[in-house]
Amino acid sequence: MCPVLAFSGIIADDDPDGEKKRREMSEDLLKRARFLVVCGKKINDDVRADISIAKHSKVIPTTLEGVLECGD
């Protein structure tokens, strides 16, 4: 599940604490996951933070290409 898509519309854009709340919800979702699939070639600071949280929480980080290779 993509937190950006899953949580859009839940917290108002004009909420001063909105970004912090979205981040906390995303981290909670990630900590409950079994693996993290990183899609796309660009990795920004948010993606790096998600990968770090995943590794710390024993969640397996992989790429979409890695998942697709397993199906061959």
Keywords:
72 residues; mainly alpha; two-stranded parallel sheet; 2 strands; 53% helix
What is the strand and helix layout of this fold?
Elements lengths: L2 H4 L11 H15 L2 E4 L6 H12 L3 E4 H7 L2
Parallel strand pairs: 1-2
Number of domains: 1
- Strand-and-helix sequence, N→C? HHEHEH
The largest sheet, given as strand count, sense and whether it forms a barrel, is: 2 strands, parallel
Radius of gyration: 13 Å
How many beta-strand runs? 2
Proportion of residues in β-strands: 5-15%
The N- and C-terminal alpha carbons lie at a distance of 23 Å
Explain what you see.
The protein is mainly α and 72 residues long. The chain has one domain. Helix content is 53%, strand content 11%. The protein is built from four helices and two strands; from the N terminus they run H-H-E-H-E-H. It has helices at 3-6, 18-32, 45-56, 64-70, and strands spanning 35-38, 60-63. The protein has a two-stranded parallel sheet. Strand 1 (35-38), helix 3 (45-56) and strand 2 form a beta-alpha-beta unit. The longest helix has 15 residues, at 18-32. The chain is elongated, with a radius of gyration of 13 Å.
Could you give a short description of this structure?
The chain has 72 residues and is mainly alpha-helical. It has four helices and two strands; from the N terminus they run ααβαβα. It is elongated and about 45 Å long.
